[in-house]
Known about the structure:
- The structure is a single chain.
- By secondary structure, the chain is α+β, with helices and mostly antiparallel strands.
- The protein folds into 2 domains: 2-56, no CATH class; 80-123, no CATH class.
- The protein has helices spanning 19-29, 33-43, 50-62, 80-95, and strands at 2-6, 12-16, 99-106, 110-115, 118-123.
- The strands form 2 sheets. Strands 3-4-5 form a 3-stranded antiparallel beta sheet, covered by helices on one side. A two-stranded antiparallel sheet has the order 1-2.
- A hairpin with a 5-residue loop joins strand 1 (2-6) and strand 2 (12-16).
- Helix 1 (19-29) packs across helix 2.
- 3% of the residues are buried.
- The mean pLDDT is 86.
Amino acid sequence: xxxxxxxxxxxxxxINIPEEYIARTRxxxxxxxxxxxxxxxxxxxxxxxxxxxxxxxKAKGQGHxxxxxxxxxxxxxxxxxxxxxxxxxxxxxxxxxxxxxCEVMNIERIVxxxxxxxxxxxxxxxxxxxxx
Length: 132
């Protein structure tokens, strides 16, 4: 569909608007031909829409939530039972014959050691309670 309008410079301009765009816009938004044409002109940048400009400025003024730079830090409570278990495992394993280089890698989770030509690692994991 050929349509003539006054462009931003105040001169008449003729453009070709796709018929399927007008039909789709009318059907989806329930608007008239004139409203669909104005929407096309605004979307394609042929004319300025004051409402769109106001909303764009308002959105720019609010900024992004991500840019605040504040990240929530999670602090874990120490699990005293796991710490005691790892300590007991460390003491037991290091007391065994032929065990060398026994060390606690994580105070609530990992004990690493070597025996003979092999290296071993014991990892303690706590299972969550099942959801009901």
